[in-house]
Amino acid sequence: MKARAVLFWLAQLSWGFFQTLAGALMCLTCGRCRRAWYHGACVTYWNRRDSVSLGAFVFIGRMRPQLQRKVLVHEFGHCVQSLLLGPLFLPLVGLPSGLWALCFSARSRRSYYAFLPERWANRLGRRVTGEEPPTGEE
Q1: Domain count, the chain
Q2: Is residue 134 part of a domain?
Q3: Residues 6+ apart with CB under 8 A from 119
Q4: Are strands 34-38 and 52-54 parallel, antiparallel or unpaired?
Q5: Which of 12, 87, 94, 115 has its CA 20 to 30 A from that of 107?
Q6: How is the chain classified by DSSP, letter by letter?
Q7: Rounded to whole angstroms, how far apart are CA atoms 5 and 122?
């Protein structure tokens, strides 16, 4: 494992402990789902429509492959938020993002990514990975 990945995991297991623990428990429930590594994060491709990030764990839902990569960049942005906010990630990003996802309507004129924590995750994901996140117009 590269030094950056080791530091990523040490930070997520200490400063981001609560969300990483939740992500690990969720990962255990995914059984035979396909897994991969992305900038140190453990990525699980599950058979659901939604995507989520918890600490060092990213879960990517079913969608077109081109969009899947962009959503991965966005979800990795949430991993970076976890590193920055530590134990404040769940109340400041996780809960608001989850509620936004539940209440958001695809018929809305606003992009899902217009909401502050989502917009911030897109910026962080782009900055750290050098790849493009979703715009909401895909």
Answers
A1: 1
A2: no
A3: 113
A4: unpaired
A5: 94
A6: --HHHHHHHHHHHHTTHHHHHHHHHHHHTTTT-EEEEETTEEEEE-SSS--EEETTEEEE-S--HHHHHHHHHHHHHHHHHHHHHGGGHIIIIIHHHHHHHHH--TT-SS-GGGSHHHHHHHHHHHHHH-SPPP-S--
A7: 21
- Whole domain around residue 47: which residue ranges? 3-129
Q: Is the pLDDT of residue 1 over 90?
A: no
Q: Is 16 within 8 Å of 53 (Cβ atoms)? A: no
Amino acid 136: pLDDT: 80
pLDDT at 42 over 70: yes
Query: In 10 A of CB 88, how many CB atoms?
Result: 12
Identify whether 136 is part of a domain.
no
Which amino acid, 32? R
* Residue 138 maps to a domain: no
Q: Give the span between the Cα atoms of 20 and 78, in whole angstroms.
A: 12
Residue 89 reports pLDDT greater than 90: yes
